[in-house]
Each structure stands twice: as structure tokens, then as C-alpha cells.
Design goal:
This protein is an all-beta fold and 776 residues long. It is 3% helix and 46% strand.
């Protein structure tokens, strides 16, 4: 069974006698069950409890995602829930089942009584005002006592129950012999033979004030809780085909609403005297099922499911139809259930459909116009305000002037004007912000400064090449050819990004094979490689520099759920799998046009949905998505995806001690290490960070590093030879409050003001680039 997302538009209506379109409505989702559905129970926690005639129970969340499914192994009747959130269902052979809201429970007992026949289907369960369950089976009305004991009130042998309505205490039953019975527990407390016009009546019991109303054609009658006749009267006009089972009008305990079985009419009657209060026509309804009405107390309306497939929201106080949801050929199957705030779900065969009004969302920005110099990027969501917590989509009407990513990262491209659009994309909500953007030439006067420093550590002198980066200079990760797994000269990377300064970044495969990084890389707020060793430096949108032992996990989900069996994971991003090894890997557009190999099962995700599932194919990577590849023992994860599956993932960011760290606003990060300085003190523990090579632990070598001073100035630094411990002491001499090592040896390189300051001995994979006129 599965929820099917939908954005089908549906019509609205508001009128007195003849509804006219005036309110936009939306279908939220569809769920397919394994049998014919009864009306779902909407639970206090927002979940839905569904039951099928062939015995399946399911709990769905408010988005239609299945949380739990249980097979009762019995044919079932319609369920009921009481004020204690106990759910009762009747099954074949006079069985009663009891469940809680999580579908925990089972058979509460089998009832036996005189002349019982086996394998018959009982009525649906109803619960009275005290919460006790009742259902009928042949001539028996069955219930549980306050202590859970089984009770049976027997009508004359051969008399079957035609109607059953729960009252303030106990139930009212209409027998096939034309007699109305009042039942409390296991006893018939009174009975009344009905006159001919009331035979076949529909019952509406008052669970608050007591008593019962009977509707049969033009005849209306009511009995008090003690059996006395309240009134009898005749209506001016009979309903087409008879009445549906009536329901109490929300907000007014003194009236009930009923609908015509084969006509378009819906009417309200006063409980006190049976007077018809109003009757309206829902054109095209084509009649209503025998139990097609459902009151929505929170919204103050009654929902009516027409045989045409339309659902009507009736405002009893205004005597009008507020809106209509319809247009489907499928019949609502007499089972509408309110979900609150005008929303509802109804069953049509094995389909459960959720629909209701579109909720407007106010989307505002801190400024009426966004003014950006070319050297500045920003995260638009930082200053967005929403009236409801909804998902957003972002787009630009002129990408040549300004671009925006699916996460709201705004990048100016050229001077000029354009518009950004922020659209609400959460189902059931609607809203949009049009934000004018003016991109101007860079006016920054910040400049990087190259300095050669003489530093003495333990009596030994070192010449350190440095580039000082003032706080506020824009920066990003510089990738060779703007891809992961490519190499280029450092000077080529710097010039491709139009950098004022650059330094090599994380370690990479430099001795044969694909030159892929070893450390974590984040660019434009997206994790493009996971290393999970050493230390990482991160730069946030507000200019803050972070440094920590960043560890990243990717936790995935499908169809809105991150719990089993919808969960999935990957532990690599943009990394070629090792031959013969089991792997779970994500490939993003930074990998290139294709994944680069043909192994395992590949799941192609575009715009948040699975578009292709491939076996042993070198698949293309969509520009608006990613590819998940599962190999070896991890290939079982691919079974959780189908074409059309909605896919999402979240990142779990912790440090080495598994403490969560707040790196969600980091737009650029490079992981290398080890850490050299922390809070102004040496903090060197390479083995503890996962390093084992003597090049890091003990040897002297060419080094690259990055430090942050107290005022926020960033300093890039290289030295021709030092141990890691000496490198840390040098960083302290340079004024480091925080500092870390970058890749070194032949990779060590630095660029500033148009030329190389330190020339690498090899092509490199990645680096950090800084400049006031960067080409993003």
C-alpha cells in the first residue's frame, strides 16, 4: 500500500440554494489499501486509522504515509472510536476487536448467544456517550460492560437489526419487525412498535441530551431517553429515495442533518419538534450513500459524500454549501471523515483520498528589493518570514543576472535587474513572494596582502609565506575543472574562479587511480564529498569561521518518512567504489555528467522523485538531482525505491565525540587536519583524529595551513619544511586563535595577486579561493 502525492485542483463553492464556485480546493494525497475501505477514523494525534472489509488495519500519518499495517485475519465491519481513544471493530462470527491508536491490540472476544449462526458479518460498531462499544449480529445486540465482560441483549428470534444508533447511554435499534428498541448493556429497557410511515426509518441518537430521532420519507418522530414520545409529524415533501443516516449539526445540538438517497437534497431538522429548518440542493450529487454524512465540529460544517464522486461542505448556520470537492467518477463509498480545518478524507473502493481547502501562506522578506554587489552571495532564507512552516521552491526569471539554488543560495552573475520567486510547495498550502533584485558592480575595497614572515620556534628559524585575508572577503571551495575527482594546476583553479588568493585544500589520491579527495568538501551549502577524518574549516553566510572535527552522515527517507522501511543511507558522496566491495554512494552534479562506472543498482533522483532505476549501468547524473548507487550487500536498499517515489535526505553533523554541531549554515568547508591550535593553545592529536601516516605523525615536510586571528582575519600559510608539532607552534607565532593543517608535501601551494607564492609539485584536486570578484 502506498500514498500517492497529488496536486489536482478542485473547485470551490459558496451559495444558498445553488452553490457556485468561489473557493479553491486541493487534493493532498491518495492512499491505496488492500481491500475495500470503510470511513477512516481521524485520531487526536492527526493520524488516520483505516479498516478494510477483508481484514487489514493501517495507521497513516497526516500526509497519507503508512506508519503501521496489521492483518486481523477476519472479515471486518466499520470501526468506531470512543472518548478514551479505544478503537473497536466487529468481525466475522460475532468477534470484537480492540486496538489503541498505534494499532496495538487484537481480538477482545467472541460472543455466543441462543441460536447464533456462524460466519455472518456483523454491523459496524458504535460507541455510546459513555464510551461502551455496541454492534449487532442477527437478533443480538452485543456489547462490553465497564469491567470488560461480554453482554448480549436479544431481540425476538428471527428479528434482525436494520439500524443501530448510539445514544447518551446505550443504543437504539430498529428491528426488522418494525419495532424500536432501547438497549442498555445486556438489556432491552424499552421498546415501541412503529406505525407504518416510520417503518425503515433512519435513526439519529442524541449522545448529549438523550433521545432518538426517526426519519422515514415524509414521517418524522422522536422518543425521549425513557421511551416517551417526544413528537410525530409529517414533512411537506418526501426525500428522493429516502433518507441517509442523519448526523448532529456541529455547533447546534438541537438539530440534525440528513440527505436524500437518490436525490440532490440535504435538509436539517430540529430535535425538539422535528420541524424542517432548511433544505438545499447540491446539483449533480446523484444521491448519497446510506452513511455519507460526517460532522466536522472544528470547522462547524457537515461533509456529504455524493454518489457522483463529489464531496460537499455544508454550513448549517448559513444554510449553504461552502465548497465542493469533486470531478472524479469514483463514488465516495459513503465514507467521508473530517480531518479538521475543513480538510477531509474519503474512501472510494480501495482508495483513500485526502482533500480540502488551500491554506494561504504569507511569505515576506526583510527588504522590498534585494540589492547585491557582484562579490556577495547570500542565503535568502536567513531573512524570509513564513506564516506557516512550509517547504519552499526557489527560481529566478533571469539566470544570467542572478541565480538561486534549491536551498535558497543567491549568486549574482552580472550587473542588472531580475526577479526571484519563492513558491510554497507544501501540499495544501499556497503562497508566493516576488522579490526584485538589483545586481551592481563590486564596490569592495578589501584587499589580500602577501607577507613573508620569519618565525623562530625552539631556536630554529622558519621562513613562512603568508597571505592575509581581511574579514569579509568572499570565498568558496575551488574545485579542479569545478568537478570532484579532477586535477589541475593550482594557478588554473585560482584563475578559473578569478581569485585574489588561493591555497591547496584537502588530501586526495595523488599516486595513481582516480584523483578523488579524501576529506570532506562542502560548496554552496552542499556536501560534495565525505571524508570523516581529521579537522574541517567552515565558512558561514554571516562570515563566521568554524573549525571542528566534522563528521557527516547522510540519512535518507522516501515518501515523507525516514523510518523503516522507508529509510536509506549512503556513506560516500562522489567517490568511486572499490572493486568487490559493498558500497552505498551518492553522486551529485559535481561528479560530472555520469557516475563513471557500471556496477550495482543506480537510483536516479530528479526534482525529489525517482525517475529511473538501472542495473549495472553508467548512468547520467541529473542537473537537478543526484544518483544513488547501491552495490554488494547494500544493494538490498534499492528495493525501497520505485519510479515515482518521493525521495529526500538530511545531514547529521557531529564532531569526533559524536556531539551534534551547528554547521547547517556553513556554505563552504574543507576537511584536512590535524588541528593545530584551538582557542589560542596548541591542540595537536593527529592519531586521535584518525591519522596513521608518519608524514603527519613524525616526519618533516612542506606544509600548508590556515589560521583565524581574534579579529576574524584569515591567514593562509605555507612553509618548506616542518613537523606537525613545529607547524602548530609557527601558527601560534602568526597570531592564530584557531588553526589547522591542510594537505602538504608536493601538494602544498599558495597563490596571491596573480602569481604563485608557493608552487605545488603536482596538479591538485581542490583548494580554498578568496576574492572580491570571484566567478562562482
Amino acid at each position: 500500500m502506498a500514498a500517492e502525492p497529488s496536486n489536482t485542483a478542485i473547485n470551490g463553492a459558496a451559495a444558498a440554494k445553488n452553490p457556485a464556485s468561489s473557493k479553491a480546493e486541493l487534493e493532498y494525497w491518495r492512499y491505496t489499501a488492500e481491500g475495500m475501505l470503510y470511513a477512516p477514523l481521524v485520531l487526536p494525534n492527526g493520524n488516520l486509522f483505516t479498516v478494510t472489509a477483508n481484514g487489514w488495519l493501517s495507521v497513516l500519518d497526516g500526509k497519507g504515509k503508512e506508519v503501521k499495517r496489521v492483518n486481523s485475519y477476519s472479515k471486518l465491519s466499520a470501526p468506531a472510536i470512543n472518548g478514551k481513544n479505544e478503537i473497536y471493530i466487529a468481525g466475522t462470527g460475532a468477534r470484537l476487536f480492540k486496538y489503541d491508536m498505534a494499532a496495538n491490540g487484537g481480538q477482545a472476544g467472541i460472543f455466543y448467544f441462543k441460536n447464533k449462526k456462524e460466519q455472518l458479518q456483523p454491523s459496524g460498531v458504535v460507541t455510546d456517550g459513555e464510551g461502551y462499544p455496541y454492534f449487532s449480529y442477527q437478533h443480538a445486540i452485543l456489547s462490553l460492560s465497564s469491567t470488560g465482560e461480554k453482554q448480549a441483549a436479544l431481540l425476538p428470534d428471527g428479528v434482525t437489526v436494520k439500524e443501530l444508533a448510539a445514544g447518551k447511554s446505550g443504543v437504539y435499534a430498529l428491528g426488522s419487525n418494525g419495532t424500536l428498541y432501547a438497549v442498555r448493556g445486556g438489556a432491552v429497557v424499552w421498546e415501541a412498535a412503529l406505525e407504518q410511515p416510520l417503518l425503515g426509518a433512519k435513526l439519529a441518537a442524541d449522545r448529549v441530551g438523550g433521545g432518538v430521532l426517526l426519519l422515514a420519507g415524509k414521517a418524522v418522530a422522536a422518543y425521549e431517553e425513557d421511551g416517551k414520545v417526544r413528537f410525530t409529524r409529517e414533512l411537506a415533501a418526501a426525500p428522493a429515495g429516502g433518507w441517509t443516516s442523519p448526523v448532529l449539526l456541529p455547533g447546534d445540538a438541537g438539530a440534525v442533518v440528513a440527505a436524500e438517497l437518490s436525490g440532490n437534497g440535504i435538509a436539517a431538522f430540529r430535535l425538539a419538534d422535528g420541524a424542517e429548518l432548511w433544505r438545499i440542493s447540491a446539483a449533480g450529487a446523484g444521491g448519497y450513500g446510506p452513511a455519507a454524512l460526517a460532522p466536522d465540529a472544528a470547522a462547524g460544517i457537515v461533509l456529504a459524500g455524493g454518489r457522483s464522486g463529489a464531496v460537499y461542505a455544508i454550513d448549517g448556520s448559513a444554510k449553504s454549501i461552502l465548497y465542493t470537492y469533486g470531478g472524479h467518477a469514483a463514488v465516495p463509498a459513503s465514507s467521508v471523515a473530517p480531518m479538521g480545518a475543513g480538510r477531509f478524507a474519503y474512501a472510494s473502493g480501495s482508495k483513500l483520498i485526502a482533500a480540502g481547502p488551500v491554506r494561504p501562506v504569507a511569505v515576506t522578506y526583510a527588504a522590498a528589493t534585494l540589492k547585491l554587489p557582484l562579490d556577495t552571495r547570500l542565503l535568502l532564507t536567513d531573512k524570509l518570514k513564513l506564516s506557516d512552516p512550509v517547504a519552499l521552491g526557489f527560481r529566478s526569471d533571469n539566470a544570467a543576472i542572478v541565480r538561486i539554488t534549491d536551498k535558497g543560495v543567491v549568486t549574482p552573475m552580472a550587473a542588472g535587474s531580475a526577479n526571484l520567486y519563492v513558491d510554497v510547495i507544501t501540499s495544501g498550502y499556497k503562497g508566493q513572494l516576488k522579490l526584485p533584485v538589483q545586481v551592481a558592480a563590486s564596490a569592495s575595497k578589501l584587499k589580500v596582502k602577501r607577507e613573508a614572515k620569519k618565525v623562530s620556534v625552539s631556536g630554529k628559524s622558519y621562513t613562512v609565506q603568508t597571505v592575509v585575508i581581511p574579514k569579509g572577503v568572499p570565498m568558496t571551495a575551488g574545485l579542479a575543472s569545478r568537478k570532484v575527482g579532477i586535477v589541475q594546476p593550482l594557478v588554473s583553479i585560482a584563475k578559473a574562479y578569478n581569485a585574489d588568493a588561493a591555497i591547496n585544500g584537502t588530501y586526495f589520491e595523488a599516486y595513481g587511480g582516480i584523483p578523488e579527495p579524501y576529506g570532506t568538501i562542502i560548496t554552496d551549502g552542499n556536501v560534495e564529498h565525505i571524508g570523516n577524518t581529521g579537522t574541517a574549516i567552515g565558512f558561514t553566510w554571516d562570515g563566521t569561521v568554524m573549525m571542528d572535527s566534522l563528521r557527516v552522515k547522510v540519512l535518507g527517507g522516501t515518501d515523507g518518512s525516514f523510518a523503516f522501511p522507508n529509510n536509506w543511507y549512503v556513506y560516500f558522496i562522489n567517490r568511486t567504489p572499490s572493486a568487490g566491495a559493498s558500497s552505498a554512494i551518492m553522486f551529485t552534479p559535481k561528479r560530472g555528467a555520469k557516475v563513471g562506472f557500471a556496477l550495482g543498482t543506480a537510483i536516479t533522483v530528479s526534482k525529489g522523485k525517482v525517475t529511473k532505476i538501472s542495473k549495472k549501468e553508467n548512468v547520467s547524473i541529473p542537473a537537478d538531482g543526484y544518483v544513488l548507487v547501491f552495490i554488494g550487500s547494500e544493494e538490498k536498499l534499492a528495493e525501497r525505491f520505485k519510479v515515482g517515489t518521493v525521495v529526500d535526505y538530511k545531514l547529521e553533523m557531529t564532531n569526533l565525540s559524536r556531539t551534534p554541531i551547528a554547521w547547517s549554515r556553513v556554505h563552504t568547508a574543507v576537511g584536512a587536519g590535524p588541528r593545530l591550535v584551538k582557542d589560542g593553545k596548541l591542540a595537536i592529536n593527529p592519531a586521535g583524529e584518525g591519522f596513521s601516516s608518519s608524514k603527519i605523525l613524525t616526519d618533516s615536510a612542506a606544509r600548508s595551513g590556515i589560521l583565524v586571528r581574534k579579529d576574524g582575519t584569515v591567514v593562509l600559510a605555507t612553509v618548506s619544511q616542518s613537523t606537525i608539532k613545529q607547524w602548530g607552534q609557527i601558527m601560534l607565532q602568526l597570531g592564530a586563535v584557531q588553526a589547522m593543517n591542510l594537505d602538504g608535501g608536493a601538494s602544498s601551494g599558495m597563490y596571491a595577486q596573480g602569481k604563485l607564492i608557493t608552487t605545488p609539485g603536482r596538479l591538485i584536486s581542490n583548494g580554498l579561493v578568496f576574492g572580491t570578484k570571484l566567478k562562482w
